[in-house]
Amino acid sequence: MSDGLLVLLVSLALMFTTAAEPAAAQGPEAAPAKACATHATSFTADSGDGGPVTLRMGCAQDAGALRPLAKSDDDLVMAFDFHVPERRQQTRDLIRTLVEDTQADQRAGMSLAESFTKRAQRDSVGVYPPQGGGPDFDGQVHAVDDSIVLIAPAGDIGTAANWWQKWIAAGVSLGITIASSAVCLLAFNVGAPAAAPVCGAVGGALGSLVGELMNAYFDGRSLGDAEVWKEALAVAMWGAVGGAFAGQLMNWAAAGTTSLITRIQVSLRHFATRIKAFGNVLTFMAGSMEGMGPKLLEALERLRGIGGTATPLRVMVVGDSMSQGDEGDWTWRYRLWQWFRSQHVEVDFVGPYRGTKNHPDPVGPAVPPLQGEPPTQPSVENPPVSGRYAAGVDQDFDSDHFAVWGRQAAQDKKLIGSMVTQYKPDLLLVGLGFNDMGWFVSGAQGTLDSVKTLVDNARAAKPDLRFAVADVPQRSAIGGREDLPVTTAAYNDMLARAIPSWSTPTSRVEPVDWAGSYDCAPKACPAAYDGLHPNALGEFQIARAFEQTLHRRFGIGSFVPDVPRTVPARPTPAVSGLVAEAVPSGIRVTWKPVFGAHGYTVRSRIAGNAVWSELPVATNRFDTTWTMDGWKWEYQVRTDNGDDGTSSWSPTVSAVADPRTAAPPEKIVTRATATGVDVSWDAPKGPHTDTIDRYEIILWDKDTPGAFFRSTAVKGRSAHVDGLEPGHHYLVAVATWNRAGGGMPGVARSVTVGMGTPPRPTDLKVRAVDPTTVQLDWKGSKEAAGYRVWVRNVTEGGAFTSDEYVTEDTGRGIAFLFPGYWNFEFCVTAINGAAESGRSDCVSLPGPPPSDPNTGGGPPPSDPNTGGGPPPSDPNTGSGPPPSDPNTGGGPPPSTRLPASTASILEKGAAELDAALRDDRRARSTAGDLAAVPAG
């Protein structure tokens, strides 16, 4: 049987029945000279007898006024002309929006086919869900008066039937989408709030149905029947509208479905006559739609009993600190609420919380939890949600939400089901993922899995729930976290590709371009006050990102305004009521809280020092705990709103420390294990040791830039800490905690996890700096956590001696070698906790140099004012050699012996620990959601 006879028989069959499914369409009988003319129609504009949308297609050379849009006479032009004069301007708006969306996809790197597939997947009714990977085509899309024009370059035009089938199906689907939306608008007054969302759902569903049925037909799949179609249409429309506009959808269905179906039938039959053999399925569809209007209304009525109430739209914001906001913020949730009101959309924000993040109470340092105690998750168990909003926030603001500082997708995926069951939202606005990747909870794939699980669990609780899921914004660069921008970008790319497959016929999932809308990047972040969290400008930007999705994807609202050019400034008043006082734990500094302060900066120094040490704090209290009795400390404080501004410094206050804390443990011993460290110690002696309650073990990974401290505590005098990174070097310290609080830590020997006794150092070299000072340098090893220098007086014939001064560098200066360096011999050992190598080959320097001080020889002068001799040891100035108490792991070079009672923060090890702790606090203040940090 010839192809022509088959087409004739199918056409005759369709003249007598519309119940039978059409035979598969065949390709053209003979290809014309030009590919663009394969299915050409007349380019004479139709008068409108073809229904609300008609089709023109062919070569650009024949396209008349449309020719300038093409680059070549042989380009393929497909034009859909819309004839809804009663809503002409609104039809043009629909055309323009669709064109802008498509062009945005193309700017993002999609082909025209990929953009159409993305739209089809978003609006799918589920009869024949669109798949990627079919014939590709590119080109342009234009809005021209009452027409949408598609152009395929001559070189991209396929010759196979499959290419033409997909091209025509995509175009017809687009035309029916716009025509259905435009005809639907006739049932509403111009500007009615419900018109856009209801008609967007109607047009999207009908256009999707037509496209899916055409592709199913071309692929030789069953089309089902009108019963299947109307159920799919009802589910798609209800799922796209639901909530606030469900009632208006029902009103339209009762009054407008029959008229719409009738007019779309006319256009389908018109298309069928234009595209000939490929149009058989359109004739079949047009016939099968007879009487569908009342049936569609019945299907929607059934869904109404499942899909929630008509008004208002119930919205739940699910997020972290960027969605909850800090006390004094306006929040992007407030800006979104204002937008809903401006669009005359009734909305009910729902969720368990109402406030921003309130600042913690001004309490002293927390007692470290005992090893084995379950870690607390403050953002889950007792979230800070009682903070107030900016003074200008409308008192009618509906601030209910489910967004918590520090929250992770990994946490919320377990909580969302009960939240949806309890609060029954129609729409979930999700902004999660930063904390998962920022705090090493999971990488890009793990975070994507958590977000997908959250969607699944929420949908299980409410099958018709709709979602607007945001990607993760970049933040300003953090030292040591060069991985974070890369991981964030990878996650955002994976999310964009995954979301189109997450929708169901009753539960759409749409993307929100938070990252692209939020002006924040590793190099600069003007949208945030701290490199991440939104300031007043950033709040508007985030709100607009969600508004774009709600309007363009869900049809909510009539327009989305631009971000204002000016935004409210954040008040930053100075601190008042500053008081410093001695307390048993050290010194406590307090002041009156400043409403809306993101934080404060405290600067402190020992009286007499010229240099201040500055630290950020979150609340109106600061504690100095690592201090010696009798030290006088000075303080100043200012309000610190990050990039939003800082206040002037407060007047200086001071206090003299009189701590009642206990001394550090004695004889701390560390031993590296395969994945951790064993630590043991002796109980300290002296005052205030009778109330010791626990010992805190503090560890710091020296090899991970930006690493934070790990801390745990035990009642006994030994502990094993596991879960450390093999091959990394760890600082280890132990502090006592008694009734007064935590005392000065004793810094032990560092360890290299997973390593045993290190090899002895090699290639030891020595050079003279002056007659009593030498510089030693050697080659170390990756196994070593530090090195000790051994010294022997060869003139006196003594043995080699060393103390507990350990350096992690492969070099060290040795001073105060009286009467001169030529009397001494030097060796080095490598340590890994208690494990210690044999001594290296020993070195020395020959003979005394000339004694004339003008030549640089001889011993140095002893007057400290001249810069020679040993430095002064006043701890208040921070000068002088470090103390030598071996119990703390610190100590000066071997030839200097200071009383053990001077052991203090000036020790080399404790100074290192103190500096690291200060860096730790600074990093935590800028890295993001602190509540998400897992317990050590």
- Structural class by sheet pairing and helices: alpha+beta
Which strand-content bin applies to the residues? 15-25%
Distance between the termini: 79 Å
The percent range for helix content is 25-40%
**What general form does the structure show?**
elongated
Biggest β-sheet description: 6 strands, parallel
**Radius of gyration over C-alpha positions, nearest whole angstrom:** 37 Å
Q: Give start-end ranges of low-pLDDT stretches.
A: 1-19, 24-31, 305-310, 852-912, 918-936
Tell me how many strands there are.
33
Q: Mean pLDDT score, rounded?
A: 84
SS summary, helix count = 19
Describe, in plain words, how this protein is organized in 3D.
By secondary structure, the protein is an alpha+beta fold. 29% of the residues lie in helices and 19% in strands. The strands form 8 sheets. Strands 5, 6, 7, 8, 9 and 10 form a 6-stranded parallel beta sheet that branches. Strands 20, 21, 23, 24, 25 and 26 form a 6-stranded antiparallel beta sheet that branches. Helix 11 crosses helix 18. The longest helix has 30 residues, at 246-275. The protein is elongated, with a radius of gyration of 37 Å.
Give the arrangement of secondary structure elements:
Elements lengths: L2 H14 L36 E7 L16 E7 L5 H20 L4 H12 L16 E5 L2 E6 L8 H24 L10 H24 L7 H16 L4 H30 L4 H9 L3 H13 L8 E7 L1 H4 L7 H11 L4 E3 L28 H4 L20 E2 L5 H15 L3 E5 L2 H5 L5 H18 L4 E5 L12 H16 L10 E4 L1 H4 L18 H17 L26 E5 L2 E5 L9 E7 L6 E5 L3 E4 L7 E8 L13 E4 L9 E7 L4 E6 L11 E8 L8 E5 L3 E4 L7 E10 L2 E2 L3 E2 L3 E2 L9 E9 L2 E7 L6 E8 L17 E4 L9 E9 L2 E2 L6 E2 L63 H20 L9
Parallel strand pairs: 5-6, 5-7, 5-8, 8-9, 9-10
Antiparallel strand pairs: 1-2, 2-4, 3-4, 11-12, 12-15, 13-14, 13-16, 16-17, 18-19, 19-22, 20-21, 20-23, 23-24, 23-25, 23-26, 27-28, 28-30, 29-31, 31-32, 31-33
Helix pairs in contact: 2-4, 4-5, 4-7, 5-6, 6-9, 7-8, 7-9, 11-18, 13-15, 15-16
